[in-house]
Write a structure and sequence with these properties.
Strands 1, 2, 3, 4, 5, 6 and 19 form a seven-stranded mixed sheet that branches. The chain has a five-stranded parallel sheet with strand order 8-15-9-10-11. Helix 1 crosses helix 12. The longest helix is centred in the N-terminal third of the chain and has 17 residues. The protein folds into two domains: 263 residues, FAD/NAD(P)-binding domain; 141 residues, FAD/NAD(P)-binding domain. It is built from twelve helices and 19 strands. By secondary structure, it is α/β, with parallel strands linked by helices. The structure holds flavin-adenine dinucleotide. The site of flavin-adenine dinucleotide has 31 residues, from helix 1, strand 2 and strand 4.
Length: 461
């Protein structure tokens, strides 16, 4: 069996990351890009330690095998960050886990150069991430959900469920860890009152759900939302079902373009995390407001033009297949075995439209995973949250009372660490920050910006 074939219930090199008593130095919850980057940083640190004590670590992921938003691997969809912000380059450009090394190993190095782009397709980046995951020697248990963190006998104890098909629990175990790093990503959000079903689903499941659609008697789809994913889904359905109508509904007047201009893009640089973290709350809010459209509720300008051109072209031919319902909300929706009946209401009270569609796809975003629900009764989390938001130190450790602050959040900290927190742009440097906090050792040197000339340097206050 190759490493790539290791899936559900398998531990990579079982036990290789555990000490004799089963305790590990680091338990990583989730094995998406954030904790994958951490796993690489741990292995690279262990390599440098040579004869010294090696860190032990184990990762768990509820998925059956490695995957990165695979329900949205749409043909031609490209990355929204440069490949230079891969899992390792910003901290260790000489690492064997770079995207460039991946290209080299695939024999596509020169072919990729000739594309003249910083932005590979998401499919290719998924290939890169899967390749990197398959090269990790630390144990990774797939099909395993972490449900609770407790403090017991001077260490954390994490409850793990072995799951089949994402739901049926076949076994419950516990693992002891000195540090826990939660890299569990975000959760899809459906609007209030919308119940998921075979024909009503969030876009993160798009490809799987479309493949399972029982029938398509209406030849019509509805896509709700106005962000990048919504626009991509509308274009994908329009391309893939050449006889079907695609209706798009959103509250805005039109899709609005994402800001990927260079000055704004600096908000994703590693040092922006320092600046954001230390900013007063009012400034934090202002920065998020100003730069929200670098990533959220915004669409690549070329895709907006492409959709508009399609709609216009159809209007000239009198064959309408792509229909945008601007300034609208979903008033009623009911799902039956053969379709979904949905009423779209104009938010200015200028009437409503009722459609029978084969499927309603909600590209309505994500929210951070709920860290609070992971803390068992033995951990006093009363000082750990402000409202629903975790209180996290600059080095990503969760504030805790009565137990050592050794639970880290590898992502999901947009409110305190800024816009990079839910994206890939900072995963390499964040993993280094977390590992430094755990070991006190510098895992590697993050890339730094050229320093300003002395004459215009600002004095730190
Ligand atoms: C369609 C799409 C495209 C995107 N494109 C980009 C892009 O181009 N550039 C960019 O910067 N960002 C992009 N993003 C943002 C995205 O959040 C990041 O790319 C990235 O996935 C963040 O990695 P992560 O490891 O923090 O979270 P995730 O990728 O969500 O991984 C979290 C993992 O944790 C597992 N997990 C969750 N809970 C548990 C639990 N209790 N126990 C065990 N395992 C658990 C999940 O199964 C999952 O594998 C995109 C997002 C989407 C949805």
């Amino acid at each position: 069996m190759t490493k790539d074939e290791l899936t559900e219930g398998d531990d990579r090199r079982p036990g290789s990351g555990d000490r004799a008593d089963g305790e590990v130095d680091i338990l990583g919850i989730g094995f998406g890009p954030s904790n994958l980057s951490l796993a690489i940083a741990i292995e690279e640190l262990n390599d440098r330690r040579r004869a010294g004590r090696r860190l032990t670590a184990r990762f768990v992921d509820v998925r059956r095998r490695f995957g990165w938003h695979d329900g949205m691997l749409l043909p031609g969809a490209t990355m929204q960050i440069s490949f230079l912000k891969d899992l390792v380059s910003p901290r260790t450009p000489t690492s064997p886990f770079t995207f460039l090394n991946y290209l080299h190993e695939q024999g596509r190095y020169f072919d990729f150069i000739n594309l003249k782009t910083f932005f590979p397709t998401r499919r290719e980046f998924h290939g890169y991430l899967s390749w990197a995951a398959s090269r990790i020697d630390l144990p990774v248990s797939y099909g395993t959900r972490a449900t609770r963190i407790d403090w017991s006998g001077g260490r954390f104890e994490v409850t793990l469920e072995s799951v089949v098909d994402g739901s049926e629990v076949t076994k419950v175990t516990k693992v002891a860890a000195r540090h826990v790093v939660i890299g569990s990503g975000s959760r899809p959000v459906l609007p209030e009152g919308i119940a998921p079903g075979a024909r009503v689903f969030h876009n993160h499941q798009l490809l799987n759900r479309l493949a399972e659609l029982p029938s398509r008697p209406h030849g019509r789809f509805l896509v709700v939302g106005s962000g990048q994913s919504a626009a991509e889904v509308a274009a994908y359905l329009h391309d893939s079902y050449p006889a079907a109508e695609v209706h798009a509904s959103f509250r805005r007047y039109g899709y609005t373009p994402s800001d990927d201009t260079p000055y704004a893009n600096r908000i994703f640089d590693p040092e922006a995390v320092d600046e954001f973290y230390t900013a007063p709350p009012e400034l934090k809010r202002e920065l998020l407001d100003h730069h929200w459209q670098t990533n959220y509720s915004a669409v690549d300008a070329d895709l907006i033009k492409d959709l508009y051109r399609r709609e216009y072209d159809e209007s000239t031919r009198g064959v309408r297949r792509l229909i945008v319902h601007r300034v609208t909300g979903i008033e009623r929706l009911s799902e039956a075995s053969d379709g979904v009946t949905v009423t779209i209401r104009d938010l200015g009270n200028r009437g409503s439209t009722t459609l029978d569609v084969d499927a309603a796809v909600f590209a309505t975003g994500f929210r951070s995973a709920d860290t609070r629900s992971m803390l068992g009764p033995s951990i006093d989390g009363s000082s750990s949250f402000e409202g629903d938001l975790p209180i996290v130190e600059r080095d990503y450790r969760l504030r805790l009372r009565g137990v050592p602050e050794r639970i880290f959040l590898n992502g999901g900290v947009l409110h305190s660490h800024g816009l990079t927190s839910s994206l890939l742009s900072n995963v390499a440097v964040r993993a280094a920050d977390i590992l430094r906090a755990i070991t006190g050792e510098q895992p590697d040197h993050p890339a730094t910006r050229q320093r300003l000339p002395a004459a215009i340097r600002t004095d730190p206050r």
